Amino acid sequence: MDEIKAFENKEVSRKIESPRHGIAGHIEKNFNKYYNRVVGSDSEEAALIVKDFLPIITEFQKSS
Asked: What pTM was estimated for this model as a whole?
């Protein structure tokens, strides 16, 4: 669990925090706002961040 907290506090994690909340975390009723967030996000950077996070989740699942 400490690894997850450390990851959340990284600068790279904060870069996708707003798009993540507005795209994946919550339902956005305004389609234009949702679309602009999706289009404006850096998908390549987000994919690299997810790639870094996967080993943390995998270890967490193994220990559960």
From this structure: 0.54
